[in-house]
């Protein structure tokens, strides 16, 4: 790993937006481990100060990680100061509110892409920009239908139509707004690339469900903490999505690292979905790991997502950039689930 040629030199500053998030915190830590410096863009640095403590503290003590406050996503010039002197940008920030009006979710996501890309254009130190998209930008990931073959030009355009359906805005809009925001934002990324002669390369990483070790108590709660839902028997969150794909958070973070550092990865849409799984698979692992705990019953007649996806490129990047010898691919579901539930933040 240490002998690999990198697009930017060790010691460079990396801007990570939404740095206190589950995935972004792992991305930040992996760059710190590799000898880079991280500028974490957050709304409220005081609420994200845990990024300067614990396992991050040795890096904070030498000035290798700093937190900067940025205004709401999509504000004009939001990132102009944050991008100063950075060699790479990883834009993970997204609108977390589940609200019915697409103008409150989709619109600021697209504006946020324009804001950070324009800031990168004006900062000549920037060599790489990586945008975190979503598997749902390429596919609806719906059980009971054929989700087709996922390729470079796969887009979940139907969810955009659902989000922007005529008001009054209701629950169907709210459920469509997050994936619609990812479709619209990623399309804006590629439109910006096509319309401009950029001095930096651009890549997109698209995870599905992300599981694994939380670095903060805040990462336990929330609608996307899939293993925690199964652990707690939260059927209201489980029932609408009986099957999906799940990747370990450290693996997905490593793919972001590769998307920045690998000189051969350019103009890439990296579909980083991980393992296809049904809730019954996750419940079986939980019962094995916690034999004395009672879990909800298995779902009858489990059906897996029908979709054709080639993750060869992802596996090769994991092998190439991992520090684990003889790595074969994604971290196993069992290992990810073990780290998800054996931490000081989960109780009960």
Order of helices and strands: EHEHEEHEEHHEEHHEHEEHEHH
Q: What proportion of the residues form beta strands (DSSP E)? A: 15-25%
Main sheet: strand order? 3-2-1-4-5-7-10
> Over all CA atoms, what is the radius of gyration?
20 Å
Shape: globular
Query: How many helices does DSSP assign?
Result: 11
Number of strands: 12
User: Which bin fits the share of residues in helices?
Assistant: 25-40%
CATH class: Alpha Beta
Unreliable spans = none
The residue-averaged pLDDT reads: 95
**In the CATH hierarchy, what is the architecture at level 2?**
3-Layer(aba) Sandwich
Main β-sheet: number of strands, strand sense, barrel status? 7 strands, parallel
CATH homologous superfamily caption: NAD(P)-binding Rossmann-like Domain
Amino- and carboxy-terminal Cα gap: 40 Å
Question: What fold name goes in the CATH topology slot?
Answer: Rossmann fold
Overall structural class, as computed from helix and strand content, comes to: alpha/beta
Domain count, please report it.
1
């Amino acid at each position: 790993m240490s002998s690999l040629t990198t697009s930017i030199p060790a010691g460079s500053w990396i801007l990570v937006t939404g740095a206190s998030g589950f995935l972004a915190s792992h991305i930040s830590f992996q760059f710190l481990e590799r000898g880079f410096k991280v500028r974490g863009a957050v709304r409220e640095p005081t609420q994200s100060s845990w990024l300067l403590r614990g396992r991050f503290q040795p890096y904070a003590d030498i000035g290798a990680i700093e937190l900067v406050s940025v205004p709401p996503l999509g504000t004009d010039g939001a990132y102009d100061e944050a991008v100063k002197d950075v060699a790479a940008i990883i834009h993970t920030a997204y609108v977390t509110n589940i609200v019915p009006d697409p103008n409150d979710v989709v619109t600021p996501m697209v504006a946020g892409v324009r804001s950070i890309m324009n800031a990168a254009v004006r900062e000549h130190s920037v060599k790489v920009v990586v945008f975190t998209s979503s598997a749902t930008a390429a596919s609806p990931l719906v059980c009971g239908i054929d989700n087709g073959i996922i390729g470079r030009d796969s887009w979940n355009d139907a969810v955009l139509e659902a989000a922007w359906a005529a008001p009054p805005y209701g629950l169907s809009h709210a459920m469509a707004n997050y994936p619609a925001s990812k479709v619209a934002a990623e399309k804006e990324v590629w439109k910006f690339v096509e319309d401009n002669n950029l001095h930096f390369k651009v890549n997109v990483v698209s995870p599905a469900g992300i599981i694994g070790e939380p670095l903060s108590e805040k990462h336990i709660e929330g609608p996307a903490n899939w293993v925690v839902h199964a652990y707690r028997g939260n059927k209201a969150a489980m029932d609408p999505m009986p099957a999906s794909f799940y990747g370990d958070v450290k693996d997905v973070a490593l793919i972001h690292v590769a998307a920045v550092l690998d000189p051969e990865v350019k103009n890439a849409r990296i579909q980083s979905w991980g393992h296809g799984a049904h809730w019954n698979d996750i419940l079986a692992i939980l019962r094995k790991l916690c034999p004395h705990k009672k879990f909800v019953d298995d779902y009858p007649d489990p059906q897996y997502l029908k979709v054709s996806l080639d993750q060869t490129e992802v596996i090769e990047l994991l092998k190439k950039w991992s520090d684990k010898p003889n790595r074969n691919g994604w971290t196993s579901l069992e290992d990810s689930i073990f780290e998800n539930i054996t931490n000081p933040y989960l109780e009960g």
